[in-house]
Amino acid sequence: MGRVTAPTPVIPVPPADLPGTLGALRAAGHQYRTVKQELRDNLLARMRSGEARFPGIVGYDDSVLPEVERALLAGHDMVLLGERGQGKTRLIRALGALLDEWTPVIPGSVLNEHPMHPLTPASRAQVAEAGDDQPVGWLHRSMRYGEKLATPDTSVGDLIGDVDPIRIAQGRTLGDPETIHFGLVPRTNRGIFAVNELPDLAERIQVALLNVLEERDIQVRGYQLRLPLDLLLVASANPDDYTNRGRIITPLKDRFGAEIRTHYPVDLDLELDLIRQEADLVAAVPEHVLEVLARFARAVRESPSVDPRSGVSARFAIAAAETVAGAALRRAGLLAATTTPEGRPEAAVARVGDAVSVTSTLRGKVEFESGEEGREIEILAHLLRTATAETFRAHLAGLDLSGFTALVEDGAAIETGELVSASELLRQVGTVPGLAKVLDRLGLGDAPTPEEAAAAVEFVLEGLHLTRRLGKDVTDSGRTVYGGRG
């Protein structure tokens, strides 16, 4: 086999009409602004135009986003506090879209220095000598975002910088600022820098950020060097990390202008919106199945058997939807040789029975209370049944479903399961009084495909079982048999 190489990242190319010298930049009327002024102006412009300020952020419109906007307008650095999987990193990364698309820089400057506002002695001398002929480069906003996942082994050199021994070996003196190898924070000068899981950063390393947040400068190994950095510093943390794995030291917390609490989706519709937006589904998943999974995730979050301090990530429901879609695709693949009455292969459409597999595959995403060892799958299975029953009542309460219960009278039974095709399931039930109303309530339309109709039939059968109107057995071969209440 040939060697596989990673794709080269695409670096945006600046438009040809942007000014190429400092003189041309001034003639174009460009005004120097700090990063926080830039964010404020662009946020206000989006507010006035009605343009989406944070596209892709779901469930925070009336809670978190107004607080973020107030912090940006006030020019505050901020820390986002919330349990895992609440979209903190997604929100932080969305801030970069509020920067100007292109910003001028001194070519070759590791600190992204503005030609009208050079920082280092070398850059100031260069601009003074070149004057209006000073070349101007352009930096895209995608290159103005820096991020570090805090780990206990993160060093001051990683974040702030250190002496470069190679430059010392080249004969430069320790007092020369050119001997400094700058860390991630100064290299994100004139941009946004994010520290994820800030409490995991050793306390002595957090001290190194104090000057960055308040005095807006850096210190490297005692150098008499003051570089007034221009950036927005944003951090994320789990609230319980203040007392568990680590904590944010008090002086550092005091320097953040805003402390913002995030949360999980507050209602079912927002949970569903998040699943629809984020899940990469390899098969069709009907809305009622997605709703079961959304209710399931919320039930797990609220369960007294689950540790509330760790939270249940939004990724739990997303992964559940993807797992169910994968189960539907597996069924379609295994039944590929079986054609429908129309002569086509089985289409991949998820059913509520496909959700059973998530109780085992996703249990690792949930932290249970200490007294629940060995009962994890049992607890999740109970919560999944509860979610299915709630969805059944929400959509089909009040409908006459006697046509379905009549199917199993006199000892008859209906088989379904992971490897039962849609045509086989529909053949067993035949023409059922009330099916059309069920399909309408579930939003499957007037002309559903056989696979969609089978998904609706299985949902009704499971709902009737969970409301004690049908019996249910699972065979050794994995098939599910619905029959009378016995």
What does it look like?
With 486 residues, the protein is of the alpha/beta class. Helices cover 38% and strands 11% of the residues. It has helices at residues 22-27, 35-49, 64-74, 88-94, 121-130, 156-159, 165-169, 184-187, 203-206, 210-213, 250-255, 268-278, 287-302, 314-334, 358-361, 376-396, 402-405, 422-429, 435-441, 450-466, and strands at residues 78-81, 102-105, 137-140, 145-149, 161-163, 180-182, 191-196, 231-237, 258-261, 414-417, 471-474, 479-483. A hairpin with a 4-residue loop joins strand 11 and strand 12. Helix 2 packs across helix 3. The protein is elongated, with a radius of gyration of 30 Å. The model has no long low-confidence stretch (mean pLDDT 88).
Tell me briefly what this model is.
The protein is 38% helix and 11% strand. It is built from 20 helices and twelve strands.
**Unreliable stretches:** none
Q: Gyration radius, to the nearest Å?
A: 30 Å
Number of strands: 12
Distance between the termini: 61 Å
Secondary-structure-based class equals alpha/beta
From the spread of the alpha carbons, the general shape counts as elongated
For the sheet with most strands, the description reads: 5 strands, parallel
Helical run tally? 20
Instruction: Provide the residue-averaged pLDDT.
Output: 88
Residue share in helix: 25-40%
Strand content: 5-15%
- Spatial arrangement of strands, main beta sheet: 4-7-8-1-9
